[in-house]
Amino acid sequence: MSRSLLLVRHAKQSGLAVRDHERPLTDQGREAAHRVGQRLHEDGPLLDRAICSTALRCRETWQALAAAIGSPPPVDFEPTLYNASAQDLLEAIAGVDETVGTLLVLAHNPGISVLGLMLAGTRDEDRNTLSAGFSTGAMACFAIEGAWSTISPARTRLLRFDPTS
Prior knowledge:
The protein is α/β, with parallel strands linked by helices. The protein contains five helices and six strands, in the order βαβαβαβααββ. It has one domain: Rossmann fold (3-Layer(aba) Sandwich). It has helices at 27-43, 56-69, 86-94, 111-120, 124-130, and strands at 2-9, 49-53, 75-78, 102-107, 139-145, 156-162. α1 (27-43) packs across α2. The chain is globular, with a radius of gyration of 14 Å. The N and C termini lie far apart (30 Å). The mean pLDDT is 94.
């Protein structure tokens, strides 16, 4: 079974907050997140599930993105995705229910950027496309062959990368 995985970095956040976890989006960030949702609404793929960091900037990115999609999928806000490493993100993806065909993961750098490069494997074209990393609001869409539990670079192919919103 072919699946789709979307990796999204949260949109532009404010530097104003007592704690990092509570930094909100800027107005520019809200607009950018909305544009990501509009692109998904127009170009797909249709989402079955989303998992999202509990950080305020990620939750607000999801809200703006979901509003633009129109019919957003169920979302799980996962504390373990807050500043998660690429390996932590990969483990979260591997644990997704096998009935999910298209998954969106919304989290932070450097984990999202490193995971994108990991999934690109040794494919030079994909690695070159992702080499600059994920700026705020960036999104990569991968085709995944097989079960979520067996996700690996050998079973993954980059379909598109939107480096900025």
